[in-house]
Amino acid sequence: MARIKMKRVKIANETKRKSVLRKRTDGLLKKTSDLATLCDVEIGVVIHTPKESNATLWPSPHDFEARLKKLLDFPEIEREKKLVIHEKYMEKNVEDETENLRKFERKNDSREYKHLINELIEGKIINELDLNQLNVLCSIGPEELEELVRREEELNEQEEHHVPLAPTVKSNVEPDQTIVAAPSSPRTLARQMDNLRTDPWFSEIMSGIQFDTGFPVGSTKNNVFPPNS
After folding, report:
1. 210: number of CA atoms within 13 Å, CB side?
2. d(CA 201, CA 125)
3. Where are the domains of the chain?
4. Which UniProt keywords apply (predicted)?
């Protein structure tokens, strides 16, 4: 189950505040121990509550004092190179949160702009918009117009670099000229007729046809296919 994200404000209930401090302190010291082991660094942690005289020193008061003395033995210029000042840390957090807020507001303005444009297209009068809506149109409109112009230029470039299709091969036949199939040779025609005569389906169909002379198809005087010589 995911942990519930808590707001960055002071907890009003003192009992709950102490409980959170104890749990978070245990987690912090555990992560500090892991970091010191994994990265082979010396870390000292001090946690002091204003209303209490004692402070929590990690890993122990003696080790913390030794590590602090080792740090102070370095020249001040060397110490300040990697020293993280709390004020600068908070300023960086404020800048990050401000940038995130600005992006979120910009995203909402973009959605509001699209919604207003759809309403105006459907017939809503611009005089019905309030001041905030007009400000959204004025602030987002130029950017949307630039985006449309950029997209149009990209499409024009794609059309210019588009490879044309292969040219259509023109036929040598004139428009009014009729194409006539080449006649079959007598040998080929005779072979086709023999195939039809020996075809059972064709023979069955032709056996039931009566010609104008009154003779059946299979008679000698009206035989459609002359006997093979």
Report:
1. 4
2. 79
3. 14-83, 87-159
4. DNA-binding, Nucleus, Transcription, Transcription regulation
pTM: 0.37
Strand spans (E) along 98-207: none
Tell me how far apart the alpha carbons of residues 11 and 13 are, in angstroms, rounded to a whole number: 6
pLDDT, tens digit (0-9, with 9 covering 90-100), for 152-197: 888 888 877 765 555 555 555 455 554 444 444 555 555 665 665 6
CB atoms within 10 A of CB 206: 15
Residue that the structure tokens 């630039």 belong to: 146
Q: Are 119 and 136 in contact (CB under 8 A)?
A: no
Tokens coding 126: 């611009």
Max distance between CA atoms of the chain, in angstroms, equals 138
Q: Which fold has domain 14-83?
A: SRF-like (3.40.1810)
Q: How far apart are the first and last CA of the chain?
A: 100
pLDDT < 70 positions in the chain: 1-4, 6, 82-84, 86, 162-229
Going along the chain, which residue ranges are E strands?
A: 45-48, 55-58
What pLDDT does 219 receive?
46
